[in-house]
Amino acid sequence: MSTTSPDSPSLAPAKTARRVPQIIALSAMVAATALVILIGHPHPHAPDWTPVLEAPPQIQVHLGAAVIALLLGAVQMLSPKGTLPHRIIGWVWVVLMMVLAGVSVFIKTLSPGHFSLIHLLTAWVLLAVPLAVMAVRRGNVAAHSYFMTGLFYTGLITAGAFTFMPGRVLYKVFLGH
Question: Which of 77, 85, 135, 151 could form a disulfide bond with 144, CB atoms 3.0-4.6 angstroms apart?
């Protein structure tokens, strides 16, 4: 009987593949931070929630779902997999992600009246979430993990980093006008 140790070279590509979404998210956060500093001339201050309260309902729903999904996603990443709490939180997270993406179809503030490049992420989330659910229901835990990790890091962390760009609601809340 042959066993593979966690340090075995045969597992190195899989370990690297799991890090790709994290690397993308970190790169996006660095890029977003650099752009905010270069373009926005930010002035950090105590949060002023007026921009959220004055935002259209679809932005409020989108932001609320995103914040809750971000918190639950972090819990999922740190908790044991396959347990009943993991499955329950996972189903709540799936619903939140579908609401978040579904509502984002109606948010067209970056390109008024038209879809923008960020809507490609909307399409990806609306496709990847059901694929992740189908994968785990068919017993393909690796594909499920790949999709869900990608959704968390790319769909929430990376996209979230760009919500702090000048002119966007969260920029106004935390960094200025």
Answer: 135
DSSP string, 74-95: HHHHHSPSSSHHHHHHHHHHHH
Plot region of 167 (φ>0 → left; ψ -120 to 50 → alpha; else → beta): left
Q: Which residue has the tokens 């679809």?
A: 58
User: What is the secondary structure of 53-76 as a DSSP string?
Assistant: HHS-HHHHHHHHHHHHHHHHHHHH
Task: Encode pLDDT of 79-130 as tens digits.
Answer: 999 999 999 999 999 999 999 999 999 998 777 777 888 889 999 999 999 9
Is the overall model pTM greater than 0.90, yes or no?
Answer: no
Torsion sign, CA atoms 130, 132, 134, 136: negative
Which residue in this structure is represented by tokens 């980093």?
161
Structure tokens at 128: 């990847």
Q: Would you say residue 8 has pLDDT above 50?
A: no
**Which two tokens mark 20?**
């790709």
Q: CB within 8 A of 69, min separation 6: which ones?
A: 93, 96, 97, 100, 156
Helix then strand then coil, in percent of the chain rounded to 5, is 75, 0, 25
Q: How many CA atoms lie within 13 A of 83 on its CB side?
A: 10
